[in-house]
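debug: dumping io for the single-chain case to check the tokenizer round-trip. Nothing else runs in this session.
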Amino acid sequence: MEIGLGLDFTLGLSYEDQATLAREAAELGYEQIWTPEGSGPDSFQLCSIRWEASRDVIPEGLTTGISVSPVAYRTPMGFAMSAGTLSARTGGRFVLGIGSGGIHSPAFRKAMGIRTGSTLAVMRDYLATVRGLLAGEAVDYEGPALTVRGQRLGISPAPQTPVYLGALGPKMLALGGEAADGICLNWCTPQQIALARETVDEGSKAAGREPGSVPLVEYIRICIDDDIDVARRGLAQATVGYAMGPQGTGRDSRFGYRPHFDRMGFASELAELDRVREGDASRDEVADAASDDLLLGVGYYGTPEGAFEHFRSLAEGLDVAVVRVVAARPGIDSVRAVMQACAPALNS
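debug: decoded output
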């Protein structure tokens, strides 16, 4: 299992910070460095900054990856151009992860011009077209969500860039096993990782691929502080926002992360947290009401001692486990605390 580092936009890092922490990550023995993407800074450029800086420590640079970029923000050719350029520049040390983002929402689909209500169909179309373009093929494709006519990426030789799929539910996991180069998991217990592996392998087998040939990557959130209460609240705020979903989502609560947490056995607790939130509790009060079963089932909070051991226990069954930094306090010191607590070079 390889160990990566995950840094996201909520950490408030400057571009100089990005470069500094990439160098430090390489010194600490991390093998990869990952980022999610939203509608803010372009994650392909962040990956480029990090890779370039890490070359000061490792001549070939760290492998970089995006987990994940929502497909509604780019066309297939847009994905292929950005990913292919970065892959060519880094000598193949880049992984593109794509995900469905908010396309389960009719309002979001309308705003972004998505034609179909089937999230699975959209992701199948994107996998087929983006992977084809990055393989150097002339893509002529028509699906429920996308039509691409005779398009070819103008990079030669073709940048053989792996395309991973962000997946939670069984149908998306099976699609990944069938048609993706890897799977980007998120917020999983070890038991859920094992189930995901089985489902992905079933999809692979149905497509004539070898079981175990599609790697699993996952973010595992870690929040470190000498004040355990501060660390707990940091992780809890990060966790419940995903697990509960936005307040008043109604029908949309059947999609996204809420059913994922329900499948892992947290349905009763989340229903209770709903009641807390609906009683006009503050964000801190809702976070404080989350149980340790929930928080430590998918992440770690506390002092540095024991962080790496817990991280490794949560990473069982993964091919790449990514230490996703949750900052307990503003500033770069909280980021460094997590990096050092879980550093492969300091925990071998």
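debug: round-trip ok. The chain has 13 helices and eleven strands.
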